[in-house]
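so im writing up the methods section and need the Globin domain-containing protein record in one place, dumping it here so i stop losing it
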Amino acid sequence: MYLRCKRSPSSFPILKKKLRLFEEHSDLLQLFSKFYDLKTKEQQATSEDLAEHANKVMETLDEGIRGLDDLDTFFEYLHQIGASHRKIPGFKKEYFWNIEKPFLTAVESTLGDRYTENVQGIYKITIKFIIETLVTGYEQNDSANNTPTSPTANNTTEKSPPSQVNS
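--- predicted struct ---
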């Protein structure tokens, strides 16, 4: 079960901006069968499936940041997301770090003059904490199962939408 934090999705509008993760790391597209045919930047730029996947990446980061006020929910959610990446044949935990630079670039672009050295430091710490938590979830799943990922496993990170936590 995925948990949703209590804040509204508009709490962090900065995360609604599209990341350039797949533009800067197009090799990651080959991990997903539905993106095999996206060979050119034009095909990638016009792919609704790729845009949807990029939005899911952003929603995960958004959810992670919104969850910082409830660390139990934060860890559970991001550990589940990290663990779900074990189902992607060829995915390596190091790939999570590919999100750091595009995320920070999106933050800087969104904030403009407000992106000070102090703000940059805060976002660097935040994204590193999120990525480390994803990696931990990925590793915990590996040690809990202690079995190799099946080459026929579903190779998308699609999941059911998080359910609302009622408190």
